[in-house]
Design goal:
- It is a single chain.
- The chain starts with 9 loop residues before the first strand and ends in an 11-residue tail after the last strand.
- Helix 3 packs across helix 4.
- The C terminus is likely disordered.
- A hairpin with a 3-residue loop joins strand 2 and strand 3.
- 47% of the residues lie in helices and 11% in strands.
- The chain is built from 14 helices and six strands.
- A four-stranded antiparallel beta sheet has the order 1-2-3-4. A two-stranded antiparallel sheet has the order 5-6.
- It is an alpha+beta fold and 261 residues long.
């Protein structure tokens, strides 16, 4: 596990709280805590001031309440607590695992568990919302994903495809086939998508179920769908939404500050 600890273990920089205009940087390595500061002032006495640096061991930092207070004042109590944990040797190994390994771990979680994990840190929020994760989620439920369905995943996004109803998926593939036929008739296309014999869209629909979302990772899916407002339902991008229709791409993933992940 020691190989996961890359230098520096943690690094952050920011301007001091008003009216302080000085800049500060905190860097924590495997052996030292490094505190750097740049004084910003219009006073003549401070114009030629050079940047300063304070370096001490982890043990010294744990005993240096003055520096701890400065870290808390500039960066907040959360960062202060995190740096103290690093000083005690409490490393967040899970956060430091490569994406490929984390994706393998996420493959064993239920959807509601992944949703909860995405709210624990920026790293997991980004990973749990990535196309790589949602493509893995789609392909993990079926041995073969037809080429036409894969094409829709690239076009709409794998997360949207994950929450697409069976009926809407059929409509999208039918429209895709119609467009392909029109292109072939007009001589504008040289070929179309080839459906694998071992995984036709029809077989894909049959395995998807008769209603609701195409993909189901557990009881958490229905809970997400029930809590989703009607305004969050995304219908077919190629056609206007039908009045009273609840079908379409239903994205039940948590949102933050009104921004769709």
């Amino acid at each position: 596990m020691a190989s996961l600890l890359k230098e520096p273990l943690f690094e952050i920089s920011a301007q001091g709280p008003a009216p302080n205009k000085d800049f500060y940087q905190l860097s924590i390595t495997k052996s030292d805590v490094i505190w750097r500061y740049w004084k910003i002032s219009l006073r003549n006495a401070s114009r030629n001031a050079k940047p300063g640096e304070q370096r001490e061991s982890h043990q010294d930092y744990l005993e240096d309440t003055r520096l701890q207070s400065q870290v808390g004042l500039v960066f907040g109590q959360g960062v202060q607590a995190y740096t103290l944990a690093l000083g005690r040797g409490c490393y967040d190994y899970l956060e430091r695992l490569p994406d490929a390994l984390l994706l393998c771990i996420l493959a064993h979680l239920q959807l509601e568990e992944v949703g909860a994990l995405s709210q624990t840190s920026h790293r997991f929020r980004k990973l749990c919302s990535s196309e790589a994760f949602w493509e893995q989620a789609v392909r993990g439920h079926w041995e073969t994903v037809p080429a036409e369905v894969g094409s829709l995943g690239l076009e709409l996004g794998w997360r949207r495809l994950f929450f697409t109803s069976k009926l809407q998926l059929q409509k999208l593939i039918s429209r895709q086939r119609q467009q392909l036929r029109e292109e072939e008739e007009e001589g504008e296309g040289e070929g179309g998508l080839i459906t694998e014999a071992s995984g036709t869209p029809e077989a894909f629909w049959d395995s998807a179920g008769s209603s609701g979302t195409v993909f189901s990772s557990g009881t958490g899916d229905s809970a997400y769908a029930e809590s989703l407002s009607d305004s969050d339902t995304v219908s077919d991008p190629h056609s206007p939404r039908e009045s009273g229709s609840g079908s379409g791409v239903v994205d039940t993933w948590p949102k933050e500050d009104g921004v769709d992940m």
